[in-house]
Specification:
Keywords: Membrane, Transmembrane, Transmembrane helix. This is Peptidoglycan/xylan/chitin deacetylase, PgdA/CDA1 family. By secondary structure, the chain is of the alpha/beta class. It folds into two domains: about 1-60; about 80-265, TIM Barrel. The chain is about 50% helix and about 10% strand. It has ten helices and eight strands. It has helices spanning about 1-40, 40-60, 90-100, 110-115, 120-130, 140-145, 150-165, 185-195, 215-225, 240-255; strands spanning about 80-85, 105-110, 130-135, 170-175, 200, 205, 230-235, 260. Strands 1, 2, 3, 6, 7 and 8 form a six-stranded parallel β-sheet that branches. Strands 4-5 form a two-stranded parallel sheet. β4 (about 170-175), α8 (about 185-195) and β5 (about 200) form a beta-alpha-beta unit. α3 (about 90-100) packs parallel to α10 (about 240-255) and α9 (about 215-225) runs parallel beside α10 (about 240-255). It starts with a helix and ends in a 19-residue tail after the last strand. The relative contact order is 0.13.
């Protein structure tokens, strides 16, 4: 019986200590709330606004990861507009149209043109306005690039020029005349992989370079060639292409495509050999 009474006493003491703890916690909470209510209202509002702004900035800077297909291509309908052989005297006008249409594109530029100082300001403008500038070799001469094994050296030189002009560090190149048959050799493809260079061909050839004064046919070629949800359109910095560009953009908008711009971190394979390492 005595042991039972002792146990009851201990139990009552524990309950009293718990109640005391709750009372102390409640008192501290009331003191805190009173302090908040009696503080400067303007200061409190400022603190809340600052906190909300900070959270907004954090949310804006955290971009949701883009969904990709099993082959690495983006989900949805996406078209990449690409222009070869620049910079040229027309680069500025192409950039004007793209800016007016709020479209980003990819420019594959040639080293011999990049060396012309009077054209470099528009190369800088292209990257500043969110376009991607990749390499298209120094010479664009088939024999030099493929028969004489100068593909990687020429591309590296061109990429270095782009970096010097724009401050960017691109890795994507487009082989002049396409990867086939020039990159048939496994040896040269291994050199490309070793150099960290990535290759892009195209899914649609607009044939714009042979259609002088015929922009309507360029538009028709692009329309007929559009068959997939992800398309890469080959074009050049030509006057007839400049004329066709607004209608090409309107066509893809009407079909529900988004306009993609290349990102080195999101590379997906697009070469005629279907070599996943390029």
């Amino acid at each position: 019986m005595k042991s039972s009474r002792n146990n009851n006493v201990k139990l009552r003491m524990k309950k009293k200590r718990r109640r005391l703890g709750l009372i102390v916690a409640t008192v501290y909470l009331m003191i805190f709330l009173i302090g908040e209510l009696t503080s400067d209202p303007e200061e409190s509002i400022h603190q809340v606004a600052t906190s909300v702004a900070e959270q907004s900035i954090i949310q804006d800077t955290i971009q949701p990861e883009k969904q990709k297909r099993p082959d690495g291509k983006p989900m949805g309908k996406v078209v990449y507009l690409t222009f070869d052989d620049g910079p040229s005297i027309l680069t500025n006008q192409f950039l004007d149209v793209l800016k007016e249409q709020d479209v980003k594109a990819i420019f594959f530029m040639q080293g011999s043109n990049l060396q012309k100082t009077n054209l470099q300001k528009n190369v800088k403008r292209a990257t500043k306005e969110g376009h991607y500038v990749g390499a298209h070799s120094m010479t664009h001469i088939y024999k030099n690039l493929y028969d004489n094994g100068q593909f990687v050296p020429e591309m590296n030189e061109t990429l270095s020029l782009i970096q010097d002009i724009t401050g960017t560090n691109p890795k994507l190149v487009r082989p002049p005349y396409g990867s086939a048959p020039g990159l048939e050799s496994e040896q040269i493809r291994n050199q490309i992989v070793g150099a960290g260079i990535k290759i892009w061909d195209w899914t649609i050839d607009s044939n714009d370079w042979v259609l002088k004064d015929n922009p309507n046919q360029i538009v028709e070629n692009v329309k007929k060639g559009t068959k997939h949800e992800v398309e890469v359109v080959l074009m050049h910095e030509k006057s007839q292409t400049l004329q066709a560009l607004p209608e090409i953009i309107a066509f893809y908008r009407e079909k529900g495509y988004e306009f993609g711009v290349y990102n080195d971190a999101d590379h997906f394979s697009l070469n005629f050999y279907q070599d996943k390492y390029l």
